[in-house]
Amino acid sequence: MNVATGLDFAIQEDQQDPLRHFRNRFVIEDSELIYLDGNSLGRLPKATVELAHQVIEQQWGHGLIRSWQERWLDLPVKLGRKIAQLIGASPEEVLVADSTSVNLFKLALATMQAIPERHTIITDDLNFPSDIYVLQSTTNLVGNDSHLEILQSSDGASVLLSQLDQTIAGDTALVSLCHTAFKSGFTYDLPAVSLMANQRGSWTLWDVSHSVGVIPLDLAQTKADLAVGCTYKFLNGGPGSPAFLYISKRRQNQIQNPISGWFGTDDPFAFDLHYQPAKGIQRFLSGTPFIVSAALMEPGIDLVLEAGIERIRLKSIQQTQYVIDLFDHLLASRGYQLLTPRTSERRGSQITVRHCAAKQIVQKLHHKFQIITDFRQPDLIRLGIAPLYTSYEELWRCVQAMHEVI
Ligand SMILES: *Cc1c(COP(=O)(O)O)cnc(C)c1O
């Protein structure tokens, strides 16, 4: 056996890993369980458990209505400022609100209303289904010849820049894509696509749900106009934690929130019958923010900030490469196919393989080996790699089990 494919190598990598201590910051009750689904629902930070008591007992139980002024009113903007650091945005360009789907709807509809002379939204078939439904209902609502064009991936894994180059045209209002595709982990060259769209007068709306927290983004430096993202995956915000939206400064005064609600005004408690939107990004709030779940997402974001997004990305690239090396050695000959791109710049923090018995394999991994991976219809197995708590040893054990199980 090659040195690099043995268990010793994995253990040694873990010992030398500068981020190894972060694993202890998470609740890991079952040390036998290997969890490779952090790209669907991140683990629970220990600090969140303590904070939950404080939020419920102190802020709600003791503070009651006073907590709105003391803490809660500012929360969506305060958390937005922290996320801004992870995506290369200015503090006033990011807001925590609603779910990813709802934010996508608000920003897509706002764009179509801002540039009514253009009628097309472009996306691709690698996109998250919910995003496609939302974009479809957006064009349906706008009516007036507007329509959604869905680019087809030729290999089910990636879309070429040349395909976008041939499609983005004078009628394109919006290019709305997932930065990292949820199935294959394929990751777009975000600056290149944003620039291409910008040069043709189209806006871009990125869904960064699968890249925030594992890939550093530089949205303000690129020509990206808008973005949305999820916080319960690599940001470990907890089930149903609210999402965020990004609106670049140059677009902020060009679009209106299509769901104009009281929390989008300067002073919701003034109860003015005339809607007067807040000046800043707060006007993209609609109703009452989900305070408890928003408050509980802060420790997860803080852990990413503390570890440093560049160091997380470095470990993610090394760990995904490690799984690819093990794949070549142990899985390729067992009927598995690699779907995730081999080029590190083009992949997120997951490895996806195809196998005709994928469903049974995922079940076996769980019940026989205590390894949680993720099955996606019809034949995909996803291994989510969360550098803050995934160890090399866990990856080694998973690939060994995938080899054995056939
Ligand atoms: C996880 C995810 C979502 C989730 O949307 P919700 O509205 O929070 O349910 C949306 N888009 C993408 C790309 C995702 O990965």
Any overview of this molecule?
This protein has 406 residues and is α/β, with parallel strands linked by helices. The protein folds into two domains: 138 residues, Aspartate Aminotransferase, domain 1 (Alpha-Beta Complex), CATH 3.90.1150.10; 231 residues, Type I PLP-dependent aspartate aminotransferase-like (Major domain) (Aspartate Aminotransferase, domain 2, 3-Layer(aba) Sandwich), CATH 3.40.640.10. Helices cover 39% and strands 13% of the residues. The protein is built from 14 helices and 13 strands. A seven-stranded mixed sheet has the order 2-8-7-6-5-3-4, with helices on both faces. A four-stranded antiparallel sheet has the order 9-10-13-12, covered by helices on one side. A two-stranded parallel sheet has the order 1-11. Helix 8 links the parallel strand 5 and strand 6. Helix 5 packs parallel to helix 6. The radius of gyration is 22 Å and the shape is globular. The mean pLDDT is 97. Pyridoxal-5'-phosphate binds next to helix 5 and helix 6.
> Quaternary arrangement of the chains shown?
single chain
Ligands and ions found: pyridoxal-5'-phosphate
Which CATH-level-2 architecture of the largest domain? 3-Layer(aba) Sandwich
**SS field, number of helical segments:** 14
Characterize the biggest β-sheet. Answer: 7 strands, mixed
Shape: globular
- Given the helix and strand composition, which structural class is it? alpha/beta
Poorly predicted spans: none
How many domains, as an integer? 2
Mean pLDDT: 97
DSSP helix fraction:
25-40%
Counted beta strands = 13
Secondary-structure element string:
HEHHHEHEHEHEHEEEHHHHEEHEEEH
User: What is the name of the CATH superfamily of the largest domain?
Assistant: Type I PLP-dependent aspartate aminotransferase-like (Major domain)
CA-based gyration radius: 22 Å
User: Whole-Å distance between the termini?
Assistant: 20 Å
